[in-house]
Amino acid sequence: MTGPASVTVALLISLVVAGCASSGNESIADATGETVSSQIIKGRTRQTDVRRLYGDPMKTSFASNGNESWEYEFSRMHSKPTNFIPYVNLVHSGAEGDKKSLVVFFDKQKIVQDYTMSTSKVEVSRGLITR
């Protein structure tokens, strides 16, 4: 394919590729509550096992009693269609997608005491009109 048709196909492919982005810990990208519950067992799974499964946490917190929590996050965003419309994108543009979060709580012996896995919709708007 050559000529205007190939330019059009190349432009469409570049728009689709440019319209997606992800950030965070890839190890939880496809995780669900069911997959996490099959991998983490409260009272048995050790901190080293969690690190082997999910890598280093994005955030670590310590409680006054010596317990520790690790947080993992992953976001997958897609550009809104208005981003690609000249002039309209000045008024309203942005991205929308899903955010996953896994928080694991350890006791002083570095054993999992609890965890929570959640997924939420996220939206980023910019331009003259934002929500």
Topology:
Blueprint: H1 4-18, E1 20-24, H2 33-39, H3 47-54, E2 59-62, E3 68-79, H4 88-91, E4 93-106, E5 112-126
Antiparallel strand pairs: 1-3, 2-3, 3-4, 4-5
Task: Give the structure's gist in a few sentences.
The chain has 131 residues and is an alpha+beta fold. The chain has helices at residues 4-18, 33-39, 47-54, 88-91, and strands at 20-24, 59-62, 68-79, 93-106, 112-126. A hairpin with a 5-residue loop joins strand 4 and strand 5.
Describe this structure as you would to a colleague:
- With 131 residues, the protein is of the alpha+beta class.
- The protein has helices at 4-18, 33-39, 47-54, 88-91, and strands at residues 20-24, 59-62, 68-79, 93-106, 112-126.
- Strands 1, 2, 3, 4 and 5 form a 5-stranded antiparallel beta sheet that branches.
- A hairpin with a 5-residue loop joins strand 4 (93-106) and strand 5 (112-126).
- The termini are far apart.
- The model is unreliable at 6-17 (pLDDT under 50).
